[in-house]
Amino acid sequence: GMQPVSAKLKKEIGASRRLKKCWICGSPLVEISHNFIYAGKQINKLWALAALCKNHHTGKTGFHNNLETKERVELMCLENCDIGYLMIKFPKRDWQQLFKYLKNKYANRR
């Protein structure tokens, strides 16, 4: 479910260049999207967040309503990540397999 964002994470979000524009369309009006659930909770870490405009977050073609948008955003997160670290830190999920699946599905269709 929804978790409060810590002051530390708020600061990291504010300082993060990759969270200034919508990842899909480049709009500067963004909402911060939590992209992964683990053990029933949103992962409250910078790597697991994306910047999305309202349309690409909660709109018809947005993360929450459109599988392709959701998967593309997840792929963008994982591309910025150390998958080995995720396997250790969040072992109940096969991150490697997810990454491979998403890469194969979307790598050639940017």
Number of helices: 5
Q: Uncertain segments of ≥5 residues (pLDDT<50)?
A: none
The helicity comes to 40-55%
Structural class: alpha+beta
- Say how many strands there are: 4
- Tell me, what's the shape? globular
Report the sheet with the most strands, covering strand number, pairing sense and barrel closure.
Answer: 2 strands, antiparallel
Task: Give the C-alpha Rg.
Answer: 14 Å
Strand content range: 5-15%
Question: What is the ordering of alpha helices and beta strands?
Answer: HEEEEHHHH
Euclidean distance between termini CA atoms: 31 Å
Question: Could you please describe the fold and organization of this structure?
Answer:
The protein has 110 residues and is an alpha+beta fold. Helices cover 42% and strands 11% of the residues. It has 5 helices and 4 strands. The strands form 2 sheets. A two-stranded antiparallel ribbon has the order 1-4. A two-stranded antiparallel sheet has the order 2-3. The longest helix has 13 residues, at 67-79. It starts with 6 loop residues before the first helix and ends with a helix.
Please outline the helices and strands.
Elements (H helix, E strand, L loop, with lengths): L6 H9 L15 E4 L2 E2 L2 E2 L6 E4 L1 H5 L8 H13 L3 H7 L5 H12 L4
Antiparallel strand pairs: 1-4, 2-3
Offer a few descriptive terms.
alpha+beta; two-stranded antiparallel ribbon; 4 strands; single chain
